[in-house]
């Protein structure tokens, strides 16, 4: 059962699309009080960060609820910390921040859904595109306090009528997912291994990558084109010196079963004669400042304008931009910098220079010296800048002028919607790969996400694992992290362990930042081991793809915390470093450097699969309970659940090369279970 409470006059985000069975109530003062929401003056309301200034609202709405000491809070999608979100404060504010450590409170997405599991199990979704703070046991260890920085939003409370706790979890998730609409389905080839690097300059660089992968028998389906393929970082252009005959090159790659996936950035370069820029200006498709001038920010190309993705016409126009690349045979894209990330705004930059000028001949002391540094550091992704531009948002009642900070969290969502709508218009018979960096719930219908600029840190293997179920709860199914880590220098063992987790994740993409160590799998000593591991991935693709499709169709999760299946087993409830993947298996990846194995908890009898190569594996029956399991650096161990089976194919050098007519069924010991394969 879903109840919707309408507070004030909410902005329509189009997050909710299926309203069947939803009971709506206007949250006037009495109703708000009854359900525990309180109006508070913004500057008096709780905030660990001081006053609430994000969107200048005079009043905020707060909700507080006591938590029993064993209650669990799930959700919040793309975020730091655990599957159980208790013990920290999170902030829904799409942020371009490359340091994903424990101190952060926001990453690139804003996913305002939680599921509380205590005496009662229920889901909460706050549909508000500005700032929302989730204090889940931070200010008070046994209290959850939610702060919505506005009086205008929608709240959805989801309850389950089924009695069994185990069923309740999935029932609540399914109700929520149904309400927000079916998730995006990626093309099948996008489940293959993909290679990326910020720094590939031209056709030759890409060809060398493909050649090396093929030569080493490491399967691969796609190579990415990061910002350097463009002409001076201009969207929808291709540098003709680096790619003299782009269309031919795309089709040559396609013959080798390689898809090229170019990046598209949110900002449009200001440059006379550049058609996208000129058309955007002429038709008023860019975000504006208060005085009506187009807002100017600095990003990759230098000065840019931001397309007004909240406006339906601007969306159509920007979407049409993808056509040049589609026409050249491109069938996949990644949307970047769409929080939107900004290095500086022109206005703010001027002020900063003026202020720095006044420091010139000063004797800099403790205060002034740090202030000087902060002037420059504070230029990027600055709140003041987000407050200084406007959208002409298309709303059900017509066009509405809205200041960016009030709708910040749906900017990237609408960029991806622009792309996805254009694909349906321009190439209706093709399924295009699309994923984005920034997101909001609702965007899951239009594309997937990658989790942005992580690091080559061991802790980031675990962070990926923990994000998987939380993302599924919020509708994001085509997901993945930069395998091996984006920032910093990877080591061979880190990359190998990461590969052993990413092989169970839909988006298996190795990507690294410019200036870091080369990270392609053929760069390391034991290339042969990487080849074996990626071949195992391809043998598992029929399973991964089928489970993905089933989860999408049933509005279900593909990554399931053990606590969902075994809610009365305290070891399962506490397990945050192993999880179920689909209906048949449990994974327990190694994420510690120099470890030769790890402790694994089996909530029920399971069959251990130790696999070193597609044709080299053994099955061992294991009893429920605690085990120490050896896992050599170059092998994979996972577990088949009692009474279940999974298909293992004979690998392939690319996804279409996988022969699903030739699958072996790996069955749990003593079971004659069947498996429903989906391969359309
Ligand atoms: O701030 O296009 O997250 O994947 O390689 C850097 C260059 C801009 C950020 C993306 C990253 C990409 C990089 N981009």
How would you characterize this protein structure?
- The chain has 680 residues and is an alpha/beta fold.
- Among the domains are: 2-180, Immunoglobulin-like (Sandwich), CATH 2.60.40; 544-667, Immunoglobulin-like, CATH 2.60.40.4040.
- The strands form nine sheets. A nine-stranded parallel sheet has the order 26-25-23-19-15-14-13-28-27. A six-stranded mixed sheet has the order 2-1-12-9-8-5. It has a six-stranded antiparallel sheet with strand order 29-30-31-36-33-34.
- Helix 6 packs across helix 12.
- The longest helix is centred in the C-terminal third of the chain and has 27 residues, at 527-553.
- The protein is globular and about 70 Å long.
- 51% of the residues are buried.
- Mean pLDDT is 95; it is low at 49-54.
- The structure holds ligand MIG.
- Ligand MIG is lined by residues 198, 226-227, 263, 336-337, 437, 452-453, 486, 511.
């Amino acid at each position: 059962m879903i109840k919707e409470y309408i507070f004030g006059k909410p902005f329509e985000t189009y997050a909710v699309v299926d309203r069947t069975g939803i009971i709506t109530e206007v949250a006037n003062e009495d109703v708000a009080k009854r359900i525990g929401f309180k109006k508070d003056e913004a500057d008096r309301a709780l905030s660990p960060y001081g006053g609430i200034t994000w969107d200048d609202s005079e009043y905020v709405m707060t909700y507080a609820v006591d938590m029993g000491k064993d209650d669990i809070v799930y959700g919040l999608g793309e975020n730091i910390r655990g599957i159980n979100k208790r013990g920290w404060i999170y902030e829904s504010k799409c942020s371009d921040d490359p340091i994903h450590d424990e101190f952060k409170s926001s990453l690139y997405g804003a996913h305002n859904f939680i599921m509380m599991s205590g005496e009662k199990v229920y889901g909460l979704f706050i549909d508000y595109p500005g700032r929302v703070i989730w204090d889940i046991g931070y200010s008070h260890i046994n209290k959850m306090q939610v702060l919505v920085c506005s009086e205008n939003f929608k709240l959805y409370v989801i309850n389950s009528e089924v009695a069994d706790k185990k069923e309740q979890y999935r029932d609540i998730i399914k109700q929520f997912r149904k309400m927000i609409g079916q998730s995006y389905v990626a093309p099948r080839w996008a489940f293959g291994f993909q290679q990326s690097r910020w720094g590939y300059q031209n056709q030759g660089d890409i060809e060398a990558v493909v050649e090396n992968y093929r030569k080493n028998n490491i399967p691969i389906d796609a190579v990415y084109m990061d910002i350097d393929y463009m002409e001076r970082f201009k969207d929808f252009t291709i540098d003709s010196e680096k790619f003299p005959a782009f269309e031919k090159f795309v089709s040559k790659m396609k013959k080798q079963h390689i898809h090229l996936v170019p990046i598209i950035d949110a900002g449009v370069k200001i440059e006379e004669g550049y058609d996208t820029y000129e058309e955007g200006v002429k038709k008023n498709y860019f975000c504006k400042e208060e005085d009506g001038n187009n807002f100017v920010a600095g990003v990759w190309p230098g000065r840019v304008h931001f397309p007004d993705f909240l406006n339906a016409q601007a969306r159509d126009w920007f979407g049409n931009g993808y056509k040049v690349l589609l026409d050249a045979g491109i069938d996949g894209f990644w949307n970047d910098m769409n929080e939107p990330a900004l290095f500086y705004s022109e206005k703010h930059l001027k002020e900063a220079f003026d202020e720095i000028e006044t420091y010139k001949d000063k004797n800099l002391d403790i205060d002034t010296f740090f202030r000087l540094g902060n002037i420059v550091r504070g230029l990027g992704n600055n709140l003041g800048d987000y407050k200084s531009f406007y959208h002409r948002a298309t709303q059900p009642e017509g066009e509405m002028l809205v200041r960016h900070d009030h709708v910040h969290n749906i900017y990237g969502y609408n960029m991806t919607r622009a792309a996805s709508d254009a694909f349906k218009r321009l190439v209706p018979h093709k399924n295009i790969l699309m994923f984005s960096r920034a997101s909001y719930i609702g965007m899951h219908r239009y594309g997937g996400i990658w989790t942005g600029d992580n690091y080559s840190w061991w802790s980031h293997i675990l962070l990926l694992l923990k994000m998987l179920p939380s993302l599924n709860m919020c509708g994001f199914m085509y997901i993945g992290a930069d395998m091996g880590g984006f920032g910093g220098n990877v080591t061979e063992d880190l990359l190998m362990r990461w590969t052993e987790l990413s092989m169970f994740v839909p988006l298996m993409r190795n990507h690294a930042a410019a200036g870091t160590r080369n990270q392609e799998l053929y760069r390391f000593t034991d290339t042969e081991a990487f080849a074996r591991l990626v071949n195992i991935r391809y043998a598992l693709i029929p399973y991964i793809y089928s489970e993905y499709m089933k989860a999408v169709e049933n509005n279900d999760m593909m990554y399931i915390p053990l606590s969902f299946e075994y809610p009365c087993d305290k070891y399962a409830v506490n397990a945050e470093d192993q999880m179920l993947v689909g209906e048949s298996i449990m994974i327990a990846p190694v994420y510690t450097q120099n470890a030769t194995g790890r402790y694994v908890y089996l909530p029920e009898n399971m069959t251990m699969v130790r696999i070193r190569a597609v044709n080299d594996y053994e099955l061992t029956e294991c009893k429920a309970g605690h085990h120490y399991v050896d896992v050599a650096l170059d092998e994979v161990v996972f577990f088949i659940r009692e009474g279940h089976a999974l298909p293992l194919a004979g690998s392939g050098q690319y996804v279409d090369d996988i022969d699903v007519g030739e699958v072996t069924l790996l069955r749990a010991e003593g079971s004659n279970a069947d498996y429903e394969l989906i391969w359309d």
